[in-house]
Amino acid sequence: MNTYKSKRDIIKELQDIGKDILDNKNVKVKMGQLPHTFAKHKILSEYLKRWYPILGSQHDLIYIDGFAGSGIYGDGSLGSPIIAYYLFVTHNKYPNKLSKINAEFLFIEANKDSADTLKFVLAKVDDLLKKKGLKISSNTTYKIYNYKFENKINDIIHNINNREVALFGFIDPYGYTQYDLTTIIELLKYNYSSEILLNFMTGFMNRFMNDESHLDTIKKFLGLNQEEIKDILNAKNPEEKSKKLVKALYIKIYNTFKQSNPNKDIYYQNFTILGNNNNPLYELVHLTKHWKGVEEMKKSMYEASNVAGLKFSDYYYDPEAIPITNFIYPKKSEELDEKAANYIYKILCKGKERVSQKQLELDVITKTPYIWHQNILEILQKEYNVKIVDEKGRETKKAPRKNEKAKESIFILCQTGK
Ligand SMILES: C[S@@+](CC[C@H](N)C(=O)[O-])C[C@H]1O[C@@H](n2cnc3c(N)ncnc32)[C@H](O)[C@@H]1O
After folding, report:
1. Are strands 354-356 and 410-413 parallel, antiparallel or unpaired?
2. pLDDT at 275
3. Which residue's CA is the nearest one to ligand 1's atom 4?
């Protein structure tokens, strides 16, 4: 049985498979990948590696790739459908748990040549895996739909109906006119776990906003009024404009979602992709209904950052860092923990007497760009002299790590310290 222990094995395998496919058939492929595409795939793969075992332990799974592509690039590197499928069947939980649940991979691709190539590449991947002795379960299936996303997705949503599955949608178009936000919201409204990673093309929008007809399309797409669009146009620079566009996107999604799901939470976070002039190209926007999704996605995004913040820039791209491995910024998580402690002390604690450890962890995960580590509490105690007490007010040095219930009765006394 073929399972994979280290990241390097997976990357090497994928490269070898890609080369093998290019050698074997004159597949119609476009150019090689740009560096930022590696970052995009890195985020997707890091997240799916976490998502599969967490959600797959309780539910069947459906992965939808709305703009699937041909599965292979001119340099032999492989596209998102292959990455998603391959990581699933080679996951070290596949031989036991994951092969027993129903897992469907649904790939939508409008271009006939690309859809045909994707079919060929997937068959080739299956052959290569079989040769290596990997048994793919009949519970694991994929389908390729040679359709336009906007003409197929409603059917898919309708067929899923109220099945108890966890959904992950990767929506990766070239522009912003091939889908409608109501579709994205329909996917999120699904009763069980559902989440989306959306490539939101702010670069295109930035570029074309000065043209009246484009501006009108953008206004309609995001449901903006004249004042709001003016505010975006007045942004100081492309990066700020991009931020405002993402915020408008989120507000639109949030408000529409909340109208029919007033009691459900929805979280978002975004990762900025900058081009070789260091201007924004697009934002990878993650939408989820569970804080755990936010936490795991944030970890995945940090694995692809090559500059400060949740960002990747082609401008700072280091050729030595490709393929998708080890271009992480910052190199040490302690740097982020220091920043998180400072943020808690100055912002999250502001005006509060005390805050429970549970609440603090949730706030760090969902309201800051930082990841929660227990080390943050230690920094607060050691460097900020903040006191941490149990429910009886006794000072404690040992805060619980895993016990979620116990975290509710540990408190950070906000007004103590430096
Ligand atoms: C950015 S590429 C996808 C790359 C792929 N997700 C990956 O990461 O390897 C976008 C793809 O969407 C396809 N496409 C364009 N318009 C479409 C539509 N309306 N519906 C579905 N696919 C479409 C294009 O042919 C192209 O292959």
Report:
1. antiparallel
2. 92
3. 69
